[in-house]
Design a protein that fits this description.
By secondary structure, the chain is α+β, with helices and mostly antiparallel strands. It contains four helices and seven strands, in the order αβββαβααβββ. Strands 1-2-3-7-6-5-4 form a seven-stranded antiparallel β-sheet. The N and C termini lie far apart (about 30 Å).
Length: about 150
């Protein structure tokens, strides 16, 4: 398991990166004009998993998210919470949703958001399907895009 301090370091490195002009993927980081999204931690798949194991892993990820939110709250103040349900509904109806929310809304229910140095930083836990891994992720975007 990666420590909260390691996650904060990863977030700081990502915040310092320039946004690319075109979408690109570099390892566990997907970037595009005005955004970066990175997996901080990814669980195993759950194809034949015991439901108790799935619940255990979800609890681990939520606890890790909570510790990271607490660390960043000490640094930047309390976050806003962005419910991505509206983005998912707009996307399902064919309406435009700005990146990276267009991708995130399909598997992340909410993001804890801070506004720092002209960018927003969002943290969340998501799962793309019942058999797929949990992801603890950070999304960073240009101010004014959410």
């Amino acid at each position: 398991m990666t420590s909260t301090a390691d996650h904060v370091t990863s977030i700081d490195r990502l915040r310092a990166r320039d946004f690319p002009r075109q979408r690109a993927v570099d390892g566990r980081v997907a970037s595009g004009p005005g955004f970066h999204v990175a997996d901080l931690r990814v669980s195993e798949d759950f194809w034949d998993a015991d439901p108790a194991r799935v619940e255990e892993v979800l609890e681990e990820f939520e606890a890790e998210l909570g510790a990271l939110v607490q660390a960043l709250t000490l640094r930047w103040g309390a976050p806003a919470v962005l419910d991505l349900t509206d983005s998912l509904e707009r996307s399902a109806m064919g309406e435009p949703v700005p990146p990276p929310l267009d991708a995130l809304c399909g598997y992340v229910p909410e993001l804890h958001i801070w506004h720092v140095d002209g960018r927003w930083v969002g943290l969340g836990v998501g799962q793309g399907g019942r058999e797929l891994p949990f992801q603890l992720l950070v999304a960073i975007g240009e101010e004014g895009t959410i």
